[in-house]
Putative enzyme related to lactoylglutathione lyase (Microbacterium ginsengiterrae), 121 residues
Amino acid sequence: MAHGDITHIDIPVSDMGRATAFYSTLFGWQIAEVPGFEGYPMWQAPNRISGGGLAPRGDGFTQPRSYVEVDSIDDTVAAAVQHGATVAMDKQPISETSWWAVIADPDGNMIGLYEGVTDAG
């Protein structure tokens, strides 16, 4: 993936079993937990390109969130803030070689940022 590509979409759910059955039946998504990411089943669309995760719904996470791949989260956050965004979640590690953060655009839309590589299968 390249800088600016949408790389992942998280969908907030209150019942993992119900959500897994719903999305796999309705859209044919393959949904499974990946070692190292237990409790966070990941989905893949039939095109084998689109994908994301089913994440627990909670305060501050009530709507689907897209993640955009960037070359540098630090640089992207700085530029976003300069253009009116706010930081909703500071940079956090996913693995030894990948990180994520969340910004809110000037309209309050949450946008996830992703930097690095993962061996999530």
Observations:
- The CA atoms of residues 13 and 96 lie 27 Å apart.
- Strands lie at 6-13, 30-32, 42-44, 51-56, 65-69, 86-95, 98-104, 110-116.
- The radius of gyration is 15 Å.
- The chain has a mean pLDDT of 92.
